[in-house]
Design brief:
182 residues; mainly alpha; Fumarate Reductase Cytochrome B subunit; two-stranded antiparallel ribbon; 70% helix; 2% strand; elongated
């Protein structure tokens, strides 16, 4: 269950993967919804929840990377390796690496924006995190579009990842998806 296996990911790797997937979907949807709301207590509450979710995504990603270093993923099955063209393997590895990177970058840029705008991140309303950058309106205006752009890049990578899953489940039917399914 917690030990590496030749064919499947470990239970912690699977749990972290799906927790991150749900967190990313929920946080992105919340970000889209809240950005068009008029200033209200509901909007402020959603912004706080969005920040909390972003910090949780950041922490889960660090935990997932730590687990991955301790327990490397199982190699691709030989049949899949032989059937997959080199360019697909390159895209697969690049997508996975960029997903990890963007799961770190998007929350950090959001934290930087919040800090620059003068709105500290108070995790779960209990712990005020240190400002990531100094407060400054010009800096906040510079950072804000980067949070949105990196979030959209993360969405594109997630969609590319899901397209790869669909390819293996629907077209290839090679069982690769079962390695990450609980």
């Amino acid at each position: 269950m917690f030990e590496p296996n030749r064919h499947r990911y470990t239970l912690p790797a699977i749990a972290l993967h799906w927790l991150l997937a749900l967190g990313l979907i929920g946080t992105f949807a919340m970000g889209l919804y809240m950005s068009d709301l008029p200033l209200s207590p509901q909007r402020l509450r959603l912004y706080n929840w969005h920040k909390w979710a972003g910090i949780c995504i950041l922490l889960l990603t660090l935990l997932r990377l730590g687990w991955r270093l301790k327990s490397p993923p199982p190699p691709l099955p030989q049949a899949v390796m032989l059937a997959m063209p080199d360019w697909q393997r390159i895209v697969m590895h690049a997508t996975h690496h960029l997903l990890y990177l963007m799961c770190l970058v998007v929350p950090l840029v959001g934290w930087a924006y919040s800090s620059a705008a003068g709105f500290p991140v108070v995790l779960f309303g209990l712990w005020q995190l240190p400002d990531f950058v100094p407060v400054g309106k010009a800096l906040a205006e510079l950072i804000k579009p980067w949070h949105e752009a990196t979030a959209w890049l993360l969405v594109a990578l997630v969609l590319l990842h899901v397209a790869g899953v669909v390819k293996h489940v629907v077209f290839e039917r090679d069982g690769l998806f079962r390695r990450m399914w609980p």
